[in-house]
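Running co-folding for iron/sulfur cluster.
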Amino acid sequence: MTGDWPLSAPCSGRDGFTPSEDDWSTGADLKRLCRPQLDTCGPCPFRAACIATVKPAQAKFDGIAGGRLWCNGEVIDALDDVFEDELAEPKLRASCGTEAGARDHKRHGERVCPSCRQATREVSARRREEKAKQPKQLQLDFATT
Ligand code: SF4
Ligand SMILES: [Zn+2]
């Protein structure tokens, strides 16, 4: 891929991808302004390169990059078909291996590391199990009263 890929991107020459700070104050404003442009990223073959160039998390970026809408460097909206491997490599942190670690990765606009992914899967499975038990417990409670 050559360095002039932005000229071939679907957004080339189009406005509204990085609204002026004078035009919005909340994430909801940003969504209202940018959502129509987000669809432009749908067929773009440069999403990963776009994110690697803009570095939205580090730059505290506000606007559209790589099929996602970022506000202060965090993803607040995304196309349905984005791929996690379009994001930056995850940094390992003290929180890794926990659900909070997965949230930290997302906050930094990067992929979720394998141990955080596993922790999230386990927490979700536990929650599902607990939820599945609840109605039975209630039924038993009713039966014994
Ligand atoms: S991903 Fe979106 S913002 Fe980035 S180059 Fe492609 S069309 Fe433009
Ligand atoms: Zn992690």
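Result summary
The mean pLDDT is 92.
Residues 9-11, 17, 40-41, 44, 46-47, 50, 64-67 surround iron/sulfur cluster (ligand 1) (CB under 6 Å).
Job closed.
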